[in-house]
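thread: overnight batch results

M.L. [08:02]
morning all. the overnight job finished for the chain we discussed friday. pasting input first so we're all looking at the same thing
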Amino acid sequence: MPIRPARLADVGPVQAIYAHHVLHGLASFELEPPSVEAMRRRFEAVTSGGYPYLVAEGDDGTVLGCAYASAYRTRPAYRHTVEDSVYVAAAATGRGIGRQLLSRLIAEAEALGYRQMLAVIGDSGNAASIGLHRACGFAEVGTLRAVGFKCGRWVDSVLMQRALGEGDRSAPR
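M.L. [08:03]
and the structure it wrote out:
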């Protein structure tokens, strides 16, 4: 399956994929889907920051999923750490698209010199995302209990982490 850098033209399909997750799941703690314009601003913030933003394409060119890295936090000491986000279209789940996207995202973040990647996963019951990250070399490092309230219940955030490249074995350049 082709995985390629996202383009501005992909923002509409990415917004539709993300909107589904906002409305029907706990992967995002947003309560209302952002507009296409808001997603465009987010896309431009990620890409203008030099972070990788990828999409998976179906045989017909349809965007089936997206993954991107962004700053974990903005303070300078965190500059070697990124946070990942991966979303797959509801009709395309279970086909390995998330794993392909995340694997490529890891490779691109390593090539850019990042040393750690974090995943902040909505819902401790999100076995698919936790399993995806575990399969890609992430380890669970903690759970923030009941930090969100969505769909009429309290929701955890699961923190997972993966070293990139040399990780903490050497100082960054």
